[in-house]
Amino acid sequence: MNATPINVLGYTSNSRQFVVKTLNTDLRMNQNAQYPELDGPNPYEYLLAGFAGCINALGQQVAKEQGIPLRSLQIEITGNLNEAPASRQKPGFSKIEIKLKPAAAVSQEILQKWIAEVQQRSPAYNMLVNNTPVELVLHREYAYV
Predict the structure, then answer these.
(1) What is the DSSP string of 29-69?
(2) pLDDT tens per residue across span 60-97
(3) Is residue 77 helix, strand or coil?
(4) Which of 18, 60, 111, 126 could form an S-S bond across to 29 if both were Cys, CB 3.0 to 4.6 Å?
(5) Crossing angle for the helix pair 43-65 and 108-121, nearest 10 degrees?
């Protein structure tokens, strides 16, 4: 099975705004009261936004494959975040709820089959609900360019 590598590069500077360079754009993350003009979504919001984007892209593709005339798709994701590791709860999301609201003139049964296929094929869903190995590699120093 071939894996497609996806790479991003993130860095921060004196403004403490974290910038992630992707293939086509720069994503800015920050919640810094000292520089409100640089304010942007926090990393957890980006994670949920990326999850919603993955569900949307795959949902559109599966609907096309199944012949479902999907006029639009609204996705709302709410994550309950445990930030304090001292609280004896594992840090991270304790629960993520995804509400899908497809606009399609088809039966509930067809939509249930559609969402089951989306869930089964979603790399983002699989990564979040299963243990995906993560390797942290520490480099002593880097030079900002």
Answers:
(1) E---TT-GGG----HHHHHHHHHHHHHHHHHHHHHHHTT--
(2) 999 999 999 999 999 999 998 887 666 677 788 888 99
(3) strand
(4) 18
(5) 120
